[in-house]
Amino acid sequence: MKSKQARFVIGLLITLVVVIFAILNVDPVTISFGFTRIKLPLIVLIIVTLLLGAIITMLLSNSGNKKDDKKLSRTAQKQFSNLKVSNDNQIVDALKENKGKKQTK
Question: Which residues form the Lipopolysaccharide assembly protein A domain (predicted)?
């Protein structure tokens, strides 16, 4: 739980620094897209870039639910346990069969 809180506080601090940086840079800049040029305030460019970075990070991050991972893990453990019991039963049957053959000889 503390890890989530620490990540939240760090994220908040980084956001605050970026916002202050953006507010201090309001001069217009020219952006070239190769086929066209756009002139807009640097604050808009910084905020748009920040939002695009956040969206890309969110899309590329591991967004799987931990509950699904635990469920998969439990299912895998259950299957492994069943397999182990099955193998143990096969070993017991083989030993019984082998014991029976030795007694008949």
Answer: 25-78
